[in-house]
Amino acid sequence: MPVRNIGLLPEIFRTNPNEKFINATIEQLTNEPNLKRVNGYIGKKFTIVNKPGDNYIQESTNDRDKYQLEPAVVVPNPDGEPVFTGHYIDLLNKLRYYGADTTDQTRLFSNEYYSYDSQIDYDKFVNFSQYYWLPGGPVAVPIFSETLPGNVTTIVDRTGSSATVATGVGNYQFDLINNQTNPIIILSRNGTYNFTVDQAGNPFWIQTEPGVAGVQASQPNFSSREIHGVVNNGDDVGTITFNVPDANAQSFYTDMTDGVDVNFANSGITYEEMQGQLLSEFILATGGIDDNVNIEDKTFLFIDNSVSASDWTSTTTYSTGLFGGTEFGTGVEVPVVNRTGIWKVNLEASGGDYIIHLTSMALLADNIKHKAIEGVQYNDRSFYKDTSDVMQLIPLITALQDTFYYQDGNDSNLTGIIKLVNVGETYVIDINEDILGMASYTSPNGVKFTNGLKVAFNEFVTPAIYANEEYYVE
Fold it and tell me: Considering the entire predicted model, what is its pTM?
């Protein structure tokens, strides 16, 4: 007798579950085959070479009996390997699954017509007489950018707003840019541009990013309307002037040496209001330094530049010498040189409260910028001490920026783009940034892109592969 596979296992594994599993799997492969000799034909019975009485192998169903060795559909991949096969019986079963009557297959497959999709525009096919054909396609519309002259005054016309019409249909028009609504405006650096507005109650803003909130989306304590070179920004009746700066116009600030970071910039709270006071009373009266009540061991700058002796003299009685740094005692006026330095908050436990001690930690050199890293209003803003011992807030750096927006103060949909170029240069259209993937686009020369429009770019585009080429808009 042949050796059973269960006997090859260690005795500990010769369990009933393992024996059943092996008998159903491995045993079927290793046992001697149990063959049965049959004698008969397999294949179609309705052929001219069949003779009555030929012996055919009996099949389990009528379909299998009638359609043995029928042609099948074989779909190969490019390498010739079959990726799909379908037998005639599979087709019948599929049709039967979807509810087709497969009892009369002659009726099922004897149609004299079938559906056909020609992949054409049927309107052009049916109404061919209403179309005319251009072998080379339509004439391409030129796309180019235009820069306004260096010193101009343009009248701004505001039409529509969410207050009077459906939101999104309003627009701005400029008398020097004909037949365009909300156009791209291209200005030359060192130019002076006056925007004359007469739209009472609707401010006209020039901003670093669009939106009516007036703050930057990523840093809400940064204004989007603090633009270097813009005068009367946000006027509704009058003239907003944009003295477009050089890109290096704010290099005094960008070239400054970085100093040390401090926790807060302290505005609106004097030395006298802090030194020697109880913490609970200070928090109740002021809300903390820049709206922050967690001030223990924090460093800060006094930025209000008060020159009043009373603001720099504490009359509250307290002990000194408890903490590092320089602390000025009761009734002692803080010297001018220390006022613009770095201060630190120390807390002395007193009953269930704390006494605030301010120590002067370091004096500041002139024109070195120091950044506040906490707070609500001044977080991430930088300050420096000028040569007159006055603390100055470094303005937002916008001179380096090439893209701005004009924005209605009340309707977020009334907005457009301002692009800056150097004197004598032409604005280069960025295909990837300005056009591709956009829901809509109007070129600087006023061409609104629509589906099927044929356009031609000149050499002032990037990437360079689009230069002096024609394209269809999709």
Answer: 0.66
